[in-house]
């Protein structure tokens, strides 16, 4: 009863009806949980601080948003990589574009839309619907009521299961509306809970309510970052847990299940806070590595003014063509080609097409920083799916 209860439905299945947050039996902030809270707070603070000393932190954030979009979408079964997304941004109709890259680009757009709207609109059910609409626009699942809460029953379980055999059945639509109303109140009034505890509780509750026919997992992960930004815990959207949840997927589902079956909010929060600390440390290390990379590269190009100008642009657009360099540098095509070749010789750019014409170059050391921690391992099979048929959990 602490987190809610399963209720038998008229059609013979049991659906879970979540209790309102915060739990009526308060979260026990003691022992390991208190220590993890302190560790996560410190790691998050260091991340927020190191980002502020980057030459252009917005470029760092833009890459992290793309990176999170890739990983969060891979959890739901897409195959696109960070390289696919960057190439899609250059030419959405290119011959080498992964077919599901548009889903990842939509995730980036949904995140950016949410951050922009927070300037004038509080984090609310209305904003979550807007974000969902951007996420699902024109891609797989776009026929499943983008931007609208569901009006039918969905479920979570193995491919081919039904309501009677599902692993988990969220609340029916009429109960879902009440649960969403309670969640919105909790987003605005956490009753003095630490912000990270509020984030952890809100994410788990959103996933339990499962208010959309598709896209719940991705919106639920966005909710964490948006809540931290709204509360100004983070000046920029830098905390993304998808890499942690992807690496610990089975435990993630088990912890959510334990909340529903045993009211184990403390076990879930321990898992969540470990993820916050781990991801914050990794992102902080990446930010510091970017600083070192930039200084080393500028030293290699010290006598090359055009090369340094192009280098700064590569932090924003790490895939580059000669034509794009020509436009950015406002020079001749031959000068742009020569400048790119100098960056290739310095070990900064690598040609990716193997063609003589229409060549494309990638900023190899920079992209390696985002790929080296196993973050670009490709999609693994999603063990659970949801929806009135199928969708992301």
From TrEMBL:
The Fido domain, residue ranges: 123-274
UniProt KW ATP-binding keyword: yes
Gene3D superfamilies noted in UniProt: Fido-like domain
Keyword line: ATP-binding, Nucleotide-binding
Organism superkingdom: Bacteria
Binding site for ATP: 76, 210, 214-221, 252-253
GO molecular function: ATP binding
List of catalytic residues: 210
InterPro entries per record: Fic/DOC_N, Fido, Fido-like_dom_sf, Fido_containing, SoFic-like
Stored Pfam families: Fic (PF02661), Fic_N (PF13784)
Keyword set includes Membrane: no
UniProt protein name: Fido domain-containing protein
Organism: Hyalangium minutum
């Amino acid at each position: 009863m602490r987190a809610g209860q399963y209720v038998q439905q008229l059609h013979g299945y049991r659906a879970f009806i979540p209790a309102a947050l915060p739990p009526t039996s308060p979260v026990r902030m003691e022992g390991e949980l208190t220590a993890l809270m302190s560790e996560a707070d410190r790691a998050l603070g260091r991340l927020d601080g190191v980002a502020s000393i980057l030459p252009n932190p917005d470029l760092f954030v833009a890459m992290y948003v793309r990176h999170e979009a890739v990983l969060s979408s891979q959890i739901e079964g897409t195959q696109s990589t960070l390289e696919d997304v960057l190439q899609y941004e250059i030419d959405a109709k290119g011959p080498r574009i992964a077919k599901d890259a548009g889903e990842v680009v939509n995730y980036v757009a949904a995140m950016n839309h949410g951050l922009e709207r927070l300037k004038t609109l509080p984090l609310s059910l209305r904003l979550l619907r807007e974000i969902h609409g951007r996420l699902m626009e024109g891609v797989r699942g776009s026929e499943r009521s983008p931007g609208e809460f569901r009006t039918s029953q969905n479920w979570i379980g193995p491919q081919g299961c039904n309501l009677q055999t599902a692993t988990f059945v969220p609340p029916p639509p009429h109960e879902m509306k009440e649960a969403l109303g309670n969640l919105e109140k909790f987003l605005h009034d956490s009753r003095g809970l630490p912000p990270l505890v509020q984030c952890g509780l809100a994410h788990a509750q959103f996933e339990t309510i499962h208010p959309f026919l598709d896209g719940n997992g991705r919106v639920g992960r966005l909710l964490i970052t948006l809540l931290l930004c709204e509360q100004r815990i983070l000046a920029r959207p830098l905390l993304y847990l998808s890499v942690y949840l992807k690496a610990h997927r089975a435990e993630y589902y088990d912890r959510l299940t334990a909340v529903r079956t045993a009211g184990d909010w403390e076990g879930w929060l321990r898992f969540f806070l470990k993820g916050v600390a781990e991801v914050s440390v990794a992102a902080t290390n990446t930010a510091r590595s970017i600083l070192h990379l930039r200084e080393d590269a500028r030293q290699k190009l010290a006598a090359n003014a055009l090369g340094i100008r192009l280098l700064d642009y590569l932090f924003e657009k790490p895939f580059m063509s000669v034509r794009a360099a020509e436009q950015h540098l406002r020079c001749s095509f031959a000068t742009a080609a020569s400048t790119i070749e100098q960056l290739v010789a310095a070990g900064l750019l690598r040609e990716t097409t193997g063609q003589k014409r229409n060549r494309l170059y990638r900023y190899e050391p920079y992209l390696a920083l985002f790929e080296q921690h196993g973050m670009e391992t490709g999609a693994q099979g999603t063990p659970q799916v949801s929806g009135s048929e199928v969708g992301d959990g």
